[in-house]
Amino acid sequence: MSDGKTVISLTDIIKRFYIGKPNELQILNGISLEVHEGEFVSIVGASGSGKTTLMNVIGLLDRPTEGKYIIDGVDIDEADDDELSFIRNQKIGFVFQTYNLIPKTNALKNVELPMMYAGVSMGERKKRAEELLKIVDMEERMEHLPEELSGGQKQRVAIARSIANNPAIILADEPTGALDSKTGRSVMDLFHKLNIEQGKTIVLITHSTELAEETDRIITLKDGSIIGERAGTDKSWMKNLGGDGGNNSADDDVKEENSTADVSAKEEVEQPC
Amino acid sequence: MLIENIRLAFTSLKANKSRAFLTMLGIIIGIASVIAIMTVGNSLTNSVSESMQSMGANNITVYIKQRDNEAEVKEDGTTFGTVDMNVSITEDDYITDEMIYSLVKEFPDEIEAISAEESVGQVTLSSEVDKSDVAIDITGVSVGYFVANSYTMLAGDTIDIDALKNAANTAVVSENFVSDMWGLEAGEALGKDFTVKVNNQEVTYTISGVYKNETTTMIMTGVASTSVFIPLTTAQSFNHSKNYTYFSIVSQMGVDSDKLADKVKTYLGGYYRSNKYITIETFNMASMVSTFSDMMGTITLAISVIAGIALLVGGIGVMNIMLVSITERTREIGTRKALGATNSSIRTQFIVEAMIICLIGGIIGVIAGVGLGLFAANLLGYPASPSVVSIVVSLVFSMAIGVFFGYYPANKAAKMNPIDALRYE
Question: Quick check: helix, strand or coil at residue B16?
Answer without folding.
Answer: coil
